[in-house]
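Reminder to self: C-alpha cells first, then the designed residues, so the page reads top to bottom the way the pipeline ran.
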C-alpha cells in the first residue's frame, strides 16, 4: 500500500493524477487529505484511491505532495507522524520561498535523513509524471539498479538551411519505454531526436541528426547496462547539404544521397557486452527484417513492426510488434504503446537474466 499525504497548496490539484498513475501500476493507494487541503480539491477527485484519516496498514512508501513550507518544517523537525524509511517529498514553493535559508536547511536535513526530494523548476512542484515515476522507481522493481539508455523520435538530415530529410516518428514508443522502465525501477537516460516532450524523471539529451544521435549514444552507452534503440534513424543523408535556402528560381535540382552511419554497428564494436535492443520498421511482415537485423547488427533483441498497418506505428497511440530473439520470437497484438513497452522490457529482462546465467 502507498500512502499519499496531500498538503494545502496549489500543487494539490495535480495529486489525483499522481494517485491514478501509482494505482495503474498495480498499487493500492490511500490518501490523507488534510483539512486545509480541501480548499483546493475534494474527495471526489480521487477515483483510484481510498481517502483515510489514518493508514489501514504500514505503507510500503509515503508520499508528501504537494508539500508547502510548513509541511517541510514539520517533516525536518520530526513533527509529522507518518514518516517511514521510504519517504518521498514533492515540495510546492514559490520562487522566493524556495530560496529562503530556512527552507533550504529543512530540505538539506530531510536529504541527510535519507528522504527522497523531487523538486520542480523555480520552486514549483514537479510534474505529476515525474513524482509518480520517482515513487514507483523507489519501490525496488524488477529493473531496480539497471541503467537504461533509450533513443526516441526521428532523425533529420539537412538538405539546406530550412529543409531536411526526416520521418514521421513521434517518439511515443521510445518515451513509453522510458516511462515504463522508470516505473520498474530503472535509471533512464533518453536521447531524443526531434522530440519536444521531456519524459519526467529521465535524463534528457536532445539531438537532431544521425551523427548527433550516434555521438550521444556512443558516449552515454559507456555508463549503461542496456540500450533500446527505438528512434527511427534516417538511412540516407544529402551528400552535399547547402548552407543557405535553395531558391525555387534555381530551376530543377538533383539531390544525391549518401548512407548514414551504422549506429548499432558502432555500438556493438565499441561495447561488445552491452545488451542491445534494436527496432525494425517494415512495410509488410516484419519478422524477416527483424531477424536479418538481429544477425547483421549483433543485437540481442529486435522489435519489428509493420508500419503499413493503419493505426499502429509512427504517430499512433497503439502498436503491434514482434519481439525477435536468437532463440524465439513473441508476437504482441495491437495494444497501447505503454502495454507494448512493458512486454518489450519484460522480454529484455528475461533475456538478460538468461545471459547472466550462461556466464
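Designed residues (359 positions):
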Amino acid at each position: 500500500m502507498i500512502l499519499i499525504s496531500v498538503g494545502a497548496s496549489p500543487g494539490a490539484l495535480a495529486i489525483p493524477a499522481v494517485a491514478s498513475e501509482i494505482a495503474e501500476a498495480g498499487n493500492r493507494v490511500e490518501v490523507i487529505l488534510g483539512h486545509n487541503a480541501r480548499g483546493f480539491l475534494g474527495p471526489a477527485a480521487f477515483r483510484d484511491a481510498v481517502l483515510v484519516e489514518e493508514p489501514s496498514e504500514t505503507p510500503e512508501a509515503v508520499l508528501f505532495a504537494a508539500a508547502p513550507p510548513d509541511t517541510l518544517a514539520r517533516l525536518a523537525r520530526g513533527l509529522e507522524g507518518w514518516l517511514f524509511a521510504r519517504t518521498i517529498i514533492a515540495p510546492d514553493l514559490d520562487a522566493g520561498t524556495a530560496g529562503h535559508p530556512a527552507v533550504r536547511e529543512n530540505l538539506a536535513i530531510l536529504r541527510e535523513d535519507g528522504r527522497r526530494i523531487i523538486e520542480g523548476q523555480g520552486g514549483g512542484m514537479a510534474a505529476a509524471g515525474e513524482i509518480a515515476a520517482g515513487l514507483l522507481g523507489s519501490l525496488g522493481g524488477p529493473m531496480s539498479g539497471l541503467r537504461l539508455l533509450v533513443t526516441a523520435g526521428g532523425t533529420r538530415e539537412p538538405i539546406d538551411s530550412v529543409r531536411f530529410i526526416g520521418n514521421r516518428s513521434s517518439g511515443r514508443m521510445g518515451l513509453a519505454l522510458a516511462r515504463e522502465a522508470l516505473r520498474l525501477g530503472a535509471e533512464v537516460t533518453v536521447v531524443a531526436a526531434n522530440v519536444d516532450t521531456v519524459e519526467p524523471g529521465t535524463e534528457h539529451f536532445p539531438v537532431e541528426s544521425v551523427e548527433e544521435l550516434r555521438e550521444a549514444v556512443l558516449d552515454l552507452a559507456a555508463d549503461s547496462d542496456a540500450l533500446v534503440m527505438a528512434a527511427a534513424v534516417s538511412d540516407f543523408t544529402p551528400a552535399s547539404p547547402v548552407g543557405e535556402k535553395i531558391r525555387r528560381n534555381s530551376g530543377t535540382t538533383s539531390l544525391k544521397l549518401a548512407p548514414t552511419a551504422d549506429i548499432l554497428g558502432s555500438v556493438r564494436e565499441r561495447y561488445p557486452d552491452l545488451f542491445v535492443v534494436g527496432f525494425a520498421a517494415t512495410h509488410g511482415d516484419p519478422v524477416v527484417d527483424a531477424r536479418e537485423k538481429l544477425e547483421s547488427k549483433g543485437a540481442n533483441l529486435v522489435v519489428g513492426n509493420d508500419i503499413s498497418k493503419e493505426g499502429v506505428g509512427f504517430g499512433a497511440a497503439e502498436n503491434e510488434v514482434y519481439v525477435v530473439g536468437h532463440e524465439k520470437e513473441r508476437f504482441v497484438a495491437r495494444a497501447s504503446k505503454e502495454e507494448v513497452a512493458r512486454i518489450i522490457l519484460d522480454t529484455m529482462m528475461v533475456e538478460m537474466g538468461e545471459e547472466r546465467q550462461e556466464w
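The chain has a mean pLDDT of 89.
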